[in-house]
Amino acid sequence: MSLKVERIEVRDVRFPTSKEGHGSDAMHTDPDYSCAYVIVHVLDKPELKGYGLTFTLGRGTEIVVQALRTLSPLVVGEDLKKIWNNFATFWRKLTSESQLRWIGPEKGVMHLAVAAIVNALWDLWARYENKPLWKLLVDLAPEKLVSTIDFRYITDVITPAECIQMLKEKKSETEFQREAEMKSTGFLAYTTQVGWLGYSDETVESLCKDFIKKGFTSFKVKVGQNLSEDKKRCKLVRDAIGPERNLMIDANQRWDVEEAIDWVTQLKEFKPLWIEEPTSPDDVLGHSTIAKALRPLGIGVATGEMCQNRVIFKQLFQAEAISFCQIDSCRLGGINEILSVYFMAKKFGIPVCPHAGGVGLCEMVQHLQIWDYISLSGESENRMIEWVDHLHEHFKVPPIIRNAHYIAPTEPGYSTQIKDESLEVYEFPNGKYWKAQV
User: Does residue 390 carry a catalytic annotation?
Assistant: First the structure.
């Protein structure tokens, strides 16, 4: 029996996080965490839906919504089983439509829209199989999983045959043990919640104490607006967490290359594990220069949340420009493209520490990192998932954090369904909250 896409529902959902400084950093000082939210409806099966989203910061979400509506005719009427059986071809259909690709290609608003649709299609596949997304990935035969990836532009670095072999090498009795570990102990998390630039010193100090009590061992601080303030904030956090815990710093693309080197060098006394997004996300050689300069100081470079596609990641790996790879579940074109980055990271020996927070990002990336640990890397050293405790109450299946670890989800899907009551309040501009602001 075929499963045909009946229609694509698209909604603009915005949360007023800027009011309390949540998510504030050196470049994004007043974010209203938002998403373009997609529901894929199946013909004659009203009980079966797929939910996907792409993360935004408020203004501009309406542009992504329009891009989704423009892409929707490429999906409506398609047989879902045929999509899943030839996913790489369908992914290329979305990303390489002959006219739409001119306003990409594979980057920017169009790629954010592709991510939302692709995320919804994977969520639907997992729901159809009655499995959490991570388990769907784990259970797929190596050949089947690798067949979902479009390898165009990256075969000079990695091939389908190599990826299949990587997966087969991890298929063993220990895979079952790793799966059991993810269900019981989970995957290590770190927190960014202590470090928003909009928070007072008192709030930061209090949050550090709270997260230490919750078992967290790694803490990230936003930097980049003012060097003296950065020194003060880093000292505050380092004193609060002690010398044995990890401190990371994040500039959110604030600096030029030499400025980044000079600035971070002046923060070396606080022993940061990494500097995240020190410069433009497109400047591969700039990242390489920064990484080379900071390596003798024991400070790594991390980036990825704004990397627009697998090609940029390929070049970051080739240029030895990063020590930590930070995939984002919405910036790349959905799971298909993200998988290609995981395989390249494995080949180059670079640990993946996914970017999360935002709207739905924690919900999604936990599935990807758990799959990687079980089926691909088998490694947890120098790997952790970002955790920010914002907005999870709006999701039907929020993440479970226990002793600073993400516990493997058990509900079918990609954990991307937003509660109906939250949509009624926060859909823009006609939700109850936004109407009250007029």
Answer: no
